[in-house]
Design brief:
185 residues, alpha/beta, Rossmann fold, globular, isomerase, isomerase activity, 6-phospho-3-hexuloisomerase
Length: 185
């Protein structure tokens, strides 16, 4: 196959996956973000990178947003929201974090392939991303991509579409957000 054939296949997988998203779940997350005093994001590996990208865009919009694990991240409180990106919903460190957030009284949202997972079951909002988890065998998988690539790519697009939704609600455009862009580069 040529590179363009792989790209076309990946785009088709992404379109199929994203068309199956629950608009209701996405809107619930948008509402939780809007009401939160502070927003925290977490994820492991490549999913964590997608969560960081989402945090950056929320910051550009003016939200108080933090990446869990960074040295400048404050404590989580009951008026806050923790959003976890985890394909399996079973990553041990993230499951412990989710349980702790619920114990504090914060809201919890998850983006996962498995809403019945440990993290999914205790979340207030679950966005199910119908992508094969990285642990899927070749027979269980419906993607040509390795491991969790389809999930991770879908996370980026889901969260970017949430940013667009929120920009529309707040009547913001990219130029309004640029004022919060890093300027020490």
């Amino acid at each position: 196959m040529r590179t363009s054939d792989y790209t076309s296949a990946m785009i088709n997988e992404l379109q199929r996956t994203l068309e199956l998203l629950s608009e209701e779940s996405v809107e619930q997350l948008v509402e939780r973000i809007a009401r939160a005093q502070k927003v925290f994001v977490a994820g492991a590996g490549r999913s964590g990178l997608m969560m960081r990208a989402f945090a950056m865009r929320l910051m550009h919009m003016g939200f108080a947003v933090y990446v869990v694990g960074e040295t400048v991240t404050p404590g989580l409180g009951p008026d806050d929201l923790l959003i976890i990106g985890s394909g399996s919903g079973e990553t041990k460190s993230l499951a412990v974090m989710a349980a702790k957030a619920k114990g504090i009284g914060a809201s919890l949202a998850a983006a996962t392939t498995n809403p019945e997972s440990t993290i999914g079951q205790i979340s207030d909002v679950v966005i199910q991303v119908l992508a094969s988890p990285k642990e899927a065998s070749d027979q269980e998988s419906f993607t040509i991509q390795p491991m969790g690539s389809l999930f991770e790519q879908s996370l980026l697009l889901v969260f970017d579409s949430i940013i667009l939704r929120m920009m529309d609600r707040q009547e913001l455009d990219g130029s309004a957000m640029f004022g919060r862009h890093a300027n020490l580069e």
